[in-house]
Write a structure and sequence with these properties.
The complex is a heterotrimer of chains A (282), B (290) and C (251). Chain B has 11 helices and 2 strands. Chain B is an all-alpha fold and 290 residues long. A two-stranded antiparallel ribbon of chain B has the order 1-2. In chain B, a hairpin with a 4-residue loop joins strand 1 and strand 2 (59-60). In chain B, helix 1 (3-42) packs across helix 11, helix 8 packs antiparallel against helix 11 and helix 10 (237-244) packs antiparallel against helix 11 (250-276). Chain B is globular and about 70 Å long. Classes of the chains: A mainly alpha (282), B mainly alpha (290), C alpha/beta (251).
Chain lengths: 282, 290, 251
């Protein structure tokens, strides 16, 4: 019974340590976001958001970069959403537990873990060169589509599986076919969850830079056609910072990215909260 | 709706489902098609164990970068694992409701911040800080691993927390009913029972660290050398590709794809290890997901 | 009188819902007391109040007094951890830890600061013997407890509980998840243990109550309708509702 520290003492100490770890985590975020916003927000003005960059970004705004980000993200989401949701429907509604399903799940997991720079290499070899899309919004958007596909697939699958079995039985019992049941009953019930998956995919697409480094080019003008080169925000920040072009504009661009992330976090949280409240029947 | 249409829809959905596999096969195909020629012509062992990378002299050894990637990753795990496990325990067991309501979105936001922003923050704040504190340029293995630490925190925290919370409540009750303190219960019962999930969490965090590119480029210094200390600059495999792809041609171009092959193999090894533990990771809706 | 536990005017609430109403009960030393009543009558909540397991549940509130050896267990000065050392608990579903048989029994000892290997070994053997499990497991103490049958697991949980020398053992329907043979073994065990421990056992099986306990309390809708000597309560119930219940007219 001779202990240096009694169990109760250990309990008190560890409680302190655990609280400290939680608080440190919060502080890390506050320091990073706080610093970026304090330095960046003064730069962000309507003029900064809606004007063209001057002298490769040394002055002027980031309007073409905002358009580029929206453009590649839109392509990514438009391509990935039907594919991801389709795969999720197949996995949750049609497939049993067999080898091919396990393989598909492992595939999605692997796809989710492949480093973005490897996606970049693949995009360069496949979309840019092999398919001849060149440095373009299309090449970048398609790479991002592949990257966000597993996110949309996995989140959609979970939300479809959460749809109560009785919904399906109710529909099948009145003579609806399997697809009618899925299309009219299961999918609508899963929409909030699927939306969350799409928004998470959106967040990943907006943040990504390494994967599209060799696919979108670095054009400073607004992309019009899907074959135009572009420069999304995150890539712009990378170029501004590493080439030492303009610290002020880098802060501004970083602030815009951080604000986008904050908005997305708030929106997903609100959605998830509302969704789970509805599922709990309140 | 005819039977025929139903059949077509099912087949269509099946194709979307196997798309993940097709994409992976395509990725493997193209990376290997472009990368293998470099390994063949330079020699596979020379490529992996060669200490010298200077494309202008036709030298393509990536060993320094393999060491660089592994070094940065292990160092960041050294910082991130204790902090994130403590934080996960805090969230799962100790934190009162209000603290949870603060901490959860904080972790989601940490997961959502673009890696370029982390790199930028490192470049502007951490590099000068390290320069003043420890001398040198401030670009180093340590600097890179500190940035990575923050980046992998959310991955490890959210999966570990989930693992801790899925330990049956009965274990906790049994331990408390025997007069164990809450901490004894956590240390001796909950934590050991959550180990498979926690290992999965660490491995996935590791995967994220190995694969991270731009944030590392911006602070690691990118010198192709075996570091003597953690204050030396290093180059990661990912950085090598991103730094040089813009102007690479010929064998150099192939050698960068070959670097990609090494990276790909490292990730697959980690995934296989993670799968070995059979921990069914819940898809965490709202961030924290790899 | 020799009362170990005295409960007076106990009210328990979870959030807005009142689970127990003005419950008063005195528990005699070194006897077995059964708590019977239909599902949801509050008997489980009641025994979880006695070792303050309900503290773990959000929204738990109570008033009234619970005395253990004349001392209020809800006094702010009372250490919950010490209290639970004195009042052991066996749960409805066997809940051994995912550890070896030996480590399961040794757990409580180690947690309470006993590190000496021989002392632990001795105590583990003694507890397993007391729980009538020793002969079945003595050759496989390193085996995971999860590999035991349900009945063996429950006896292991009892061994684990008595290893830390409690004064009181609370049993929450300890045999409800077991087959008849295992149930008999648990009941025999309860008989044996009552010489050394004060035992409170929740059961919805009235035969079990008559077989194992000296005293019985009948719970209904969060109240104690009637309590007293088991024999008397079953043969000559004073309250109409008790009579209805024990003759199987409801519940």
């Amino acid at each position: 019974m001779n202990r240096i520290i009694s169990p109760k003492m250990a309990q008190t100490i560890m409680k302190g340590v655990l609280w400290a770890s939680g608080i440190i985590t919060v502080l890390i975020l506050i320091v990073i976001i706080g610093y970026i916003l304090i330095k960046g927000l003064p730069v962000v003005s309507l003029n900064f958001l809606f004007s063209d960059p001057i002298d490769s970004g040394r002055a002027g705004g980031i309007f073409p970069m905002i358009i580029s980000s929206l453009y590649v993200t839109l392509i990514a989401i438009v391509v990935a959403t039907p594919l991801g949701v389709g795969a999720a429907v197949y996995l949750s509604e049609y497939a049993g537990e067999n080898t091919i399903v396990k393989l598909i799940r492992f595939g999605a997991e692997t796809l989710a873990s492949i480093p973005s720079i490897v996606f970049g290499l693949f995009g360069l070899a496949f979309f840019v060169i092999y398919l001849g899309f060149g440095w373009s919004v299309l090449s970048g958007g398609l790479i991002l589509a592949l990257m966000v596909l597993p996110t949309i697939l996995q989140v959609s699958e979970v939300s479809l599986e959460a749809v109560p079995k009785s919904y399906r039985e109710g529909s099948l019992a009145i003579g609806a076919t399997k697809w009618q049941t899925i299309y009219r009953v299961v999918l609508p019930a899963g929409i909030p969850g699927i939306t969350t998956g799409v928004i998470l995919g959106l967040a990943r697409a907006i943040s990504e830079a390494a994967a599209i480094l060799f696919a979108v080019g670095a054009s400073l003008s607004i992309p019009i056609s899907i074959f135009d080169p572009a420069r999304p925000l995150s890539l712009h920040l990378y170029i501004l910072a590493t080439e030492g072009i303009s610290l002020d504009n880098a802060y501004g661009t970083a602030a815009v990215l951080v604000i986008l992330v904050l908005i997305i976090t708030v929106v997903t949280n609100t959605l998830v909260e509302r969704y789970s409240r509805k599922m709990m029947g309140r | 709706m005819t039977k025929y249409e139903e059949f077509l829809i099912e087949k269509g959905l099946f194709i979307t489902a196997i798309l993940s596999i097709i994409v992976i096969l395509l990725i493997i195909g193209f990376i290997f098609k472009e990368g293998l020629p470099a390994m063949e012509s330079y020699g596979f062992l020379n490529f992996i164990f060669g200490m010298d990378w200077s494309p202008s002299d036709g030298q393509y050894g990536v060993f320094t970068m393999i060491i660089g990637s592994i070094g940065i990753t292990l160092l960041s795990l050294l910082f991130a694992v204790p902090l994130s496990l403590l934080c996960a325990i805090f969230l799962a067991e100790i934190a009162p409701k209000t603290m949870k309501r603060i901490l959860k979105p904080v972790i989601e936001t940490l997961a959502g911040i673009p890696s370029v922003v982390y790199g930028f923050f490192g470049l502007i704040i951490l590099v000068p800080f390290m320069r003043v504190q420890f001398g040198g340029t401030g670009f180093s293995m340590l600097t890179a691993s500190l940035i990575l630490t923050v980046m992998i925190l959310p991955t490890i925290i959210s999966i570990s927390e989930d693992a801790l919370k899925s330990v049956p409540h009965e274990y906790k009750e049994a331990s408390l009913a025997l007069g164990a303190t809450h901490w004894q219960t956590i240390k001796n019962v909950l934590f050991p029972a959550a180990i498979p999930g926690i290992i999965t969490a660490i491995i996935l965090g590791m995967g994220r660290a190995v694969g991270e590119t731009l944030a590392v480029i911006m602070v690691a210094g990118n010198v192709t050398q075996i570091p003597n200390s953690i204050f030396d600059p290093v180059r990661a495999l990912t950085s090598n590709i991103a730094l040089e792809m813009g102007y690479a041609t010929g064998l150099h171009y192939n050698a960068l794809f070959a670097t990609g092959i090494i990276l790909f193999i490292m990730i697959i090894i980690l995934l296989v290890i993670a799968n070995y533990f059979h921990y069914k990771k819940k898809v965490v809706i709202g961030g924290g997901y790899l | 009188m020799d009362y170990r536990i005295e409960v007076e005017d106990l009210n328990v609430y979870f959030n807005e819902a009142q689970i127990l109403k003005d419950v008063s009960l005195k528990i005699h030393k070194n006897t077995v007391t059964s708590l019977i009543g239909p599902s949801g009558c509050g008997k489980s909540t009641f025994i979880r109040t006695l070792n303050r397991m309900n503290d773990l549940i959000d929204g738990f509130k109570h008033d009234g007094t619970v005395l253990l050896d004349r001392k209020d267990i809800y006094d702010p000065k009372v250490d919950v951890v010490d209290l639970r050392k004195k009042i052991g608990m066996v749960f409805q579903k066997p809940n051994p830890f995912p550890k070896s048989i030996f480590d399961n029994v040794a757990y409580g000892l180690r947690v309470h600061g006993i590190n000496e290997n021989n002392a632990i070994k001795e105590k583990v053997e003694e507890s397993l013997k007391a729980a009538a499990l020793w002969d079945e497991v003595k050759d496989k103490l390193d085996m995971s407890a999860m590999g035991l049958s349900g009945g063996q697991q429950q006896r292991l949980c009892i061994a684990r509980t008595i290893a830390v020398n409690p004064e009181v053992i609370l049993m929450d329907e300890p045999a409800s998840a077991l087959d008849p043979i295992s149930t008999t073994k648990i009941e025999d065990l309860v008989h044996k243990l009552k010489n050394d421990y004060t035992i409170i056992i929740v059961t919805h099986n009235m035969q079990q109550a008559t077989r194992v306990s000296k005293y019985t309390a009948f719970f209904l809708n969060g109240e104690i309708v009637e309590s007293g000597l088991t024999e008397r309560l079953f043969v000559d119930p004073q309250d109409k509702r008790t009579e209805d219940y024990i003759t199987g007219r409801f519940g």
